[in-house]
Amino acid sequence: MSDVISTVGAGLGGLGLFILAIGLMTDGLKAVAGSSLRHILSSWTKTPVRGIFSGFLMTAIVQSSSAVTVASLGFVNAGLLNMRQVLGVIFGANIGTTMTGWLVAILGFKLNIEAFALPLVGIGMMFKLTQQQGRLAAVGQTLVGFGLFFIGIGVLKEAFDGVMPSFPISQFAAEGLVEYSFTCWWAL
Asked: Nearest-5° angle of CA 182, CA 184, CA 188?
């Protein structure tokens, strides 16, 4: 019973960190967004092909399609991009994460972006504490949001790592569903 309570508590805490991170990133991006950032984002995502390439490139750099997707949705929430532009970026991020998987399988190299989470929070808070308002403070808030995002994902991953082995996935075998669907079809 205590395992269930700790899993639910960790899941809720990780989800809370995740939602807080998205809010901090969105607010920071709104404050940091100047005309140059707006121009860069709109030119990178002007066409769907450019959006796909941008999402692919960003995912290859940060090796996290989740981070690219959340940042893209933060740009939409901040009013920097529209949903049409972001769909290409998200599609490209998914292609990029597939390519990253192939590169990791071939080369055996993977950058652990979660290891940068606490330093991002620390650097972001230094920016925020030294500069109460202005662009540097907004950049700091955005960095804190990204750091908390990865911490939240890590907490969620750890919370539900113990759940998977106890989940009987064998009961959802495809053979049973196919046989059942044919049986029902022939019964008609």
From this structure: 115
